[in-house]
Structure formats: structure tokens, C-alpha cells
Amino acid sequence: MSGPTGLTRRLVLDRAVLLAPVLGLHRRGAGDPTHRVLGDVHLRTTRTPVGPALLKVVANGGEVAARAWGEGAAWVLDQLPRLVGEEDDVDGFVPVHPVLVEAVRRYGHYRVGRTDAVYEAMAPACLEQVVTGKEAFRAWHLLVTEFGEPGPGPATDPASAAYGMRIPPTPAVWARVPSWTFLAAGVEERRSRTLVRTAGRAAALERTLALGGAEADRALRSLPGVGPWTSAEVRQRAHGDADAWSIGDYHVGKNITYALTGEALDDAAATELLEPYRGHRFRVQALLGLMGGVARRPRRAPRMTLPTHTPYATRGRS
């Protein structure tokens, strides 16, 4: 276990590290009790194979400085290169569309990171099925605050910027959350059932880290309630799968097609457009996201309203 001052690690890489998009992918809204951003400082809690950890990371160009606390401190520091994308392979990615050529010119040093924590990505992905981000983030905040543990080290110090951060619940704890508590957090039975069922298969989920992208996808989708979208959201984060684009998302396919063609089209069109980038389709999604307004379709309609529980069984992504 790390001491009061934690353990430290310094990486010097041959590229600048873009911490905001890499770690921001794991943050579930501004109120996420497992993540906090203070200027250039990123704080993240996680549950490692050897125990909980709190990680503090700062990047300056290619230099990454980290400090970690808790039983999993040494583990997260050893895993840090993978978290910031050092295992991501860009070979074979040849941008053709002008907006992607420009994205690579600006952000060619972006890499897809991985957490090596599958169920930790699965639980929030289940909460995010078929609802707006606002509703899902609220549920995540409420449930993690109630059922997660206080983070280690400075997370228990009222004078620290990390004060109040929580460790995500274990799969065993998720499996015991009462149905009425899920409902009180706005999570109807369809989503809570998938979350609880996958919690019971958490050990098998972690074994998918040893599989290739297509095999991991098949294994994840073999579980009831886990469809293409949920599998992709998990593989983006836990496996660092640069091909796992968010098929089935309400916005992503439209945004990709608009950025590449000037028209907001459906997922079938997005799949066809992305085919030349197979192996790197999530990389395309992420790079277009980094381009911001240059690649984002204009809004011509009101934002989606929060749905009621009634239509969940017939709507959207899984």
C-alpha cells in the first residue's frame, strides 16, 4: 500500500500526450465522483486487480507526471503507459477525407488509451443505454455516491482537491443494489437488469482483455442486453480498441457522415463511409470530435428531451 504521500512515476514519451480527450472519455459528466479535472490536473479513481487507487496525472508535452495512492497505487502507475495510449498502433491509418487530413495535422499525436478494467466500463455503459447523457450521468453520480467507497489518500482529506471522490462499486455491490434504488435514480428495469447480469459475469468480462477486437466484441455481445453500442463503448475504454466506433448512438453516425460528406446520414451510411478506415474507425470518431465545430453538424432541432420509462423497451441502443 502507498503511504500518505503516495507513489510517483514520470514518463517521457516521444509524442505530446493529449490527456483531456484520453481521460475525458472515462468521465461521466462534470459531477462524476470518480473523476475530477482542475486545470491541467486530472484525478481518477479506479478499482484495480489488487485494490482501489486514486491517480493524479499531469502532462506537459511528452512528459507525464503521476502520483497514486491506495492498495492499487503501484498497479495504476505500471498501467499508466497503456492508459495514455502507448500501446495504440496507428499503422494502416491513412486519412483521405480533407477534414481527417487536417485532424491528423493538428492532432496526429492523439492515441487511444485503455484502462484494462472491463466491468468498470460496462456498468456506466449499461446506465447510458437508450437515454440522454444528462439522465445517465445523474444516475451514475447518485449510485456511485451511495454505493462506492471513499477514494484513498487525499480523497479523505477535506483540504485536498480530491476530497469526496469515490471508488466505483465492485461487481458484487452492483449486483445487490435494490431494484427500487435503481428506479429512484431514474434507471428502469431494462438497464438495471443488464447491469446486474453483467456484474455476475465480471470475471469473464475481464478475460476479454486477452482477445482481439472482433473476438472481444462477440464475447461481450453474447451477454443478454449487451448490443453493438454497449460493446463498442466498453472496448473503446477498457480495451483501447481503435476500431470500436459508437454504432447505434443517436448522434455519432450523423456527426461522422456530416463531417465527411456535409450531410447528416444514418448509421448504414456511416458504416459504409468508415469501411476504408476499418481498424481505426473509433480513431476517426475521436479525431473528428477533437476538431470541434469544424466537423460538427449544426443543430436544427431542440435537444432531445429526457424520455419516460414507457418507451425504453422499444427504443435505441444497447
UniProtKB/TrEMBL annotation:
| One Gene Ontology biological process | base-excision repair, AP site formation
What keywords are annotated for this sequence in UniProt?
A: DNA damage, DNA repair
User: Any idea which GO molecular function terms this record carries?
Assistant: alkylated DNA binding; DNA-3-methyladenine glycosylase activity; DNA-7-methylguanine glycosylase activity
Q: Which top-level group of life is the source organism from?
A: Bacteria
- Might you report a single GO cellular component term? cytoplasm
Matching entries from PANTHER family are given as:
DNA GLYCOSYLASE, DNA-3-METHYLADENINE GLYCOSYLASE
What protein am I looking at? Answer: 3-methyladenine DNA glycosylase/8-oxoguanine DNA glycosylase
Q: Which organism is it from?
A: Friedmanniella luteola
